[in-house]
Design goal:
3 helices; globular; disordered C terminus; mainly beta; 10 strands; 196 residues; ten-stranded antiparallel β-sheet; SH3 type barrels; single chain; 11% helix
């Protein structure tokens, strides 16, 4: 029995999490099985290759559902810009950035407002980072691959009228083409430049 067989078998059991998956050319809803993992963040960051989506429903770029429904769909993780959830289940544990320090408890991280750009979208939201982390340190890191963002607003770059709000998003670092902190001193900005 190969490791991949074991991992796939585990992925088909366990708690089902509803998700919305957004890429440059793909948008859909469905569920993923967490298997042996307790959190979506852990499951996504531990997997590689194709992500198995159950009960997938293709969406128009505006977010409206299409008639295409598939019982199972495999999606290449390299093509995923971000994975979103309307209701967040893991806000207290959303770490977003791993930096070697002696005490890595959530209390030593603070939520900072970022604007993040993917090839097709902008995301504004809060990322939990260590207080001493600067913008360059955040964007240069490769771990974790998917960064948790809370209280996120997504806007399409091709149609600014398309706006979606999510309680929780996992943004793929490999799809993150630009990032800025909303306010230079590391605090939360008082005004959103995108009029959120």
């Amino acid at each position: 029995m190969a490791w991949d067989d074991t991992f796939d078998a585990a992925a088909d059991t366990g708690h089902q999490e509803p998700i919305e998956l957004i890429g440059t050319n793909l948008r859909l809803t469905g569920t993923v099985s967490l298997g042996r993992f307790g959190r979506l963040t852990d499951f996504i960051n531990a997997s590689s290759g194709y992500l198995r989506i159950h009960d997938a429903r293709l969406l128009h770029h505006s977010g409206e559902p299409t008639d295409l429904e598939l019982p199972e769909l495999m999606v290449n993780q390299d093509e995923i810009s971000f994975i979103a959830q309307g209701q967040a289940r893991e806000l207290g544990a959303a770490t977003g950035f791993i930096e070697p320090v002696s005490d890595t408890s959530v209390e030593h991280r603070k939520a900072r407002e970022f604007v993040l750009f993917t090839p097709g979208h902008t995301l504004t939201g809060k990322v939990f980072v260590f207080g001493q982390t600067d913008l360059a340190g955040f964007v240069d890191s490769s771990d974790p691959r998917y960064v948790p963002v809370v209280d996120a607003t997504m806007r399409s770059l091709t149609d600014r009228e398309i706006v979606s709000r999510y309680a929780f998003v996992l943004i793929n670092r490999t799809q993150m083409i630009a990032a800025a902190e909303m306010d230079g001193d590391g605090g939360v900005a008082t005004e959103d430049p995108f009029g959120r």
